[in-house]
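Weekly puzzle thread! Below is a chain. First person to post its structure in token form gets bragging rights.
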Amino acid sequence: MSVPIEESEFSQAEASLAESAPDQFDNEHLPQARIFNPWIVALVVTIGTFMEVLDTSIANVALPHIAGSLSASQDEGAWVLTSYLVANAIVLPISGWLSSILGRKNFYLLSVFFFTVFSAACGLAPSLAMLILFRVLQGLAGGGLQPSVQAILADTFPGNKRGMAMALYTIAILVAPVLGPTLGGWITDNYSWRWIFYINIPVGMLCVFLTRIVLEDPPYMKEAKAKARKVAVDWGGLGFISIGLATLEIVLDKGQELDWFGSPFIVLFASISVIALVAAVLWELNTKNPVVNLRLLKERNFLFCCLIILGLYMVLYATTYLLPTFMQQMMNYDATTAGIALSPAGLFTMLEVPLVGYVLTKGYDPRKMVFCGMLIIASACWWMGSMNLDVAERDFIIPRIVQVLGLGLITVPVSTIVFRFIPKTESSQGAGLYALVRNEGGSIGIALVSTMLQRRSQVFQTVLGQHLSASDAPVQDAVAQMSAVAGNHADVHYMALAQLYQRLQQQAQLQAYMDQFKMLCGIMLLMIPLVFFLKRPPAQKHMELDAH
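Winning reply:
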């Protein structure tokens, strides 16, 4: 399907791009490219991102072991995950400002170094309180890695090769969450939960060593660093954003557990979050040198790419939460087996994403890929919503693979075009906002389906219960058959009724799961019109100028 675009609009955008960011059309601003092959730079910096994203999910299956080892309840142990996500959310939007203050290379090196140090501290933590503290520090240290890598890749590669570079980054951020639970379960079962943190130490040390060698700041970053140090720090914006995002993350993570707005705790934190975020928006839009440049959202491509990635990661993380939960709760799989069953999708991602990146380097319209990817994901979610309790492992594996194939058709093109119409000097700020939207989309998706799953289960249980009465002939026949199988003793009738009620609950839960997958299908379909608002990047023009 062709997505229309006006020629005049394209010309204006291209002219604006040439004026505001002329260095996007050449490689002379890339000092690291003259010393090292850009692919070496890309591979080195992606190691740190993979390690950080892996830690968002690797501890999930180890929570019971962590809680038991540190004499804590399951609910208390869940703060090991929440604290990390809260700290991540605080740093993501301000990573661009921190890069301008410290220099991107220094910021990246410090992030990896302290992430490694606090990973080791997490493994050595003697109590739950200390573990949560170190997880907060680990999340603060690692929060800037994702946007830093995107900005580095945007600077290191010219536009006609950026698709392949973003493909490498996409593999890291898509495979890591899939691999995390499987790897975490295997390490916990065979060694100790502490080793899920210790494995970061050699990886982090290697990343720091190689980054010092291969990475250099482009000239404009050095100028921005000198300029930023002369500007007063936007403490107001920093405070509002930190408080608003921290409280929002706690609300999303703990809302279902505490019955949402039935809990005074959630009401308080939600109120603080709304007030702080509204204040942050007003403050940042009226500040000359904001810590987060919200004015970037005025650029149409950036705005709609952020909206697309928000919805996409809602669906991705929601299905990543639903599938293993369904397999364990309804099909009696253990955690490791459930993780292994979903792992083939990661392999297909590694095969597909470089191909998508290669196609983009040939000038193919990325909007068409995004459109097709949305249809594929919607189809996969509907497929998942048609399962029953008789399905085999392949019935989970195949639709998940289809979904991930659609995911690759969206994430790589969007990551490629999101920065094409904003000035190069704003790439770090843009990458921070983009990464924040992506992570918040995941948190919203999990919070949404976990809440709706419980509530829809109650609804279906009520609906199905209305059709079951002790006086109904089918119910009496079913009870009689169960009683005959159970044998003759005093409680056989009540045991049969209890078994029938258990089946009712099971079917209600099944319908609730299927409902969530179909809801996610609807979300993807509703997102399709956003594609028509995207502008096509001037890929052909870019290639001609690079050739000269």
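Puzzle host: Confirmed. Bonus trivia for everyone else. The chain is about 75% helix and 0% strand.
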